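Renewal narrative, Specific Aim 1. Our central claim is that a sequence can be written position by position from structural information alone. The example that follows is taken directly from our test logs and has not been curated for this report. It begins with the structure tokens describing the chain, in the order in which they were read.
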């Protein structure tokens, strides 16, 4: 069976087979909002660009919920298959499918009915309120199929079909670019057009990844298995670190938006938006590596092959170190050229963002280790350790830094917050990994 290669094939070959599609898929997924930003920033202006960033926490709620269930299910199904429990794996998938459908329909209703209230809650001022509200109300329509797209895409990986998620995401980015050009540039639909383009792009990806789930011969599919409410809490808890990551991303975006709005107004928010887009592109590469090795880790953990588990972790950490170093030099040395993609016509935004990029770049040197360590603990079912790492880098030290550092060193303190958070989290992560390694040796 295709999933057995996870326990027998050479780690380096598995790494390439599973991580490359995952990296490309994650980068393309992250590119959806970036594409909107490029079109809006160049054809509409800085307020539209700032509006998209205000929306980000809401998007993270949709994606975060999807990731909680998807990653939690992937890890649980992977361990069940590794232990030879196929019926249990099918029941987990069926439960995840039903649960994610119900909750995503709730997101649709809330987004449609309370888009303006959500916009105010996210920090939109009078200038940005209308655009933010339009985007939230529009993108909410697509929430159910977006959530299911992530679930099916992730489960395809653990049953040996990682390329399907990649194909779906490639199609989605082609659709998004094409529709952004038509809706924003040709038809002048502005922010509403950007939301429709992104939503339709995700739907196109859904129709690619859903196909195996409609085949009764597939290892898991939507027809077999039983809904088992007792597994909802375990899979949600196991994937909760992914939810913490989403909450962390939303928290970071919200707090940075509020801070920059106070210090530099709409131009400050637009400057942060450009750096956030660029950094998220790099971070998605690292998350792709983490997601790619997840089925390898979970299967071999269930199969009790700890040597393969450790070899996978070491290889992924080395690759992320190289990636982080390259990204550091790119952002530090070519920040102006990258920022110009989004804000070429506004010197205030350009100057703020270029200064910030040279500070923010240092975060890349360590964040790869933190992402890999968090993903490792999720894959082996140690959700608590994963949550500690995710919460440290994205919530705890962000809140502390952004409330203290600007009072000491001004606007530079906002930019320093993220590198400092990654550094502190790295120390915590190393301690947790070593502690887990010693515990495994004594078993």
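The sequence written for that structure reads:
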């Amino acid at each position: 069976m295709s999933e057995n290669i996870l326990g027998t094939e050479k780690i380096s070959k598995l790494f390439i087979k599973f991580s490359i599609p995952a990296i490309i898929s994650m980068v393309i997924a992250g590119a959806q909002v970036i594409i909107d930003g490029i079109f809006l920033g160049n054809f509409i202006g800085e307020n539209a660009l700032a509006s998209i960033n205000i929306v980000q926490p809401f998007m993270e709620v949709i994606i975060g919920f999807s990731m909680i269930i998807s990653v939690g299910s992937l890890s649980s199904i992977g361990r069940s298959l590794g232990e030879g429990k196929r019926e249990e794996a099918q029941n987990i998938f069926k439960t995840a499918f039903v649960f994610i459908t119900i909750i995503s329909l709730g997101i649709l209703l809330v987004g449609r009915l309370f888009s303006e209230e959500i916009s105010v809650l996210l920090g939109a001022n009078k200038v940005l309120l209308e655009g933010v509200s339009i985007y939230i109300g529009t993108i909410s329509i697509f929430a159910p199929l977006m959530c299911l797209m992530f679930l099916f895409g992730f489960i395809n990986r653990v049953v040996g079909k990682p390329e399907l998620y990649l194909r779906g995401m490639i199609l989605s980015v082609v659709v998004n670019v094409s529709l952004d050009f038509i809706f924003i540039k040709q038809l002048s639909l502005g922010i509403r057009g950007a939301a429709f383009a992104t939503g339709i792009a995700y739907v196109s990806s859904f129709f690619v990844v859903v196909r195996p789930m409609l085949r009764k011969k597939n290892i898991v599919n939507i027809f077999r298995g039983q809904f088992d409410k007792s597994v909802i809490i375990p899979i949600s808890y196991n994937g909760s670190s992914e939810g913490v990551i989403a909450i962390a991303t939303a928290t970071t975006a919200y707090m940075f938006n509020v801070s920059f709005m106070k210090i530099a107004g709409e131009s400050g928010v637009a400057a942060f938006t450009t750096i956030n887009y660029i950094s998220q592109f790099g971070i998605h590469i690292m998350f792709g590596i983490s997601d790619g090795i997840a089925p390898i880790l979970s299967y071999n953990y269930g199969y009790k092959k700890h040597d393969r588990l450790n070899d996978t972790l070491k290889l992924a950490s080395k690759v992320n170190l190289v990636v982080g170093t390259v990204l550091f030099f790119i952002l530090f040395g070519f920040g102006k050229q990258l920022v110009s993609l989004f804000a070429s016509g506004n010197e205030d935004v350009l100057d703020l963002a270029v200064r910030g990029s040279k500070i923010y770049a240092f975060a890349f040197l360590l964040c790869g280790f933190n992402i890999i360590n968090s993903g490792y603990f999720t894959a082996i079912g140690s959700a608590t350790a994963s949550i500690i790492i995710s919460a440290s880098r994205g919530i705890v030290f962000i809140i502390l830094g952004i409330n203290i550092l600007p009072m000491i060193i001004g606007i530079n303190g906002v930019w320093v917050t993220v590198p400092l958070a990654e550094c502190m989290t790295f120390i915590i992560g190393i301690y947790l990994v070593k502690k887990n390694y010693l515990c495994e040796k004594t078993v």
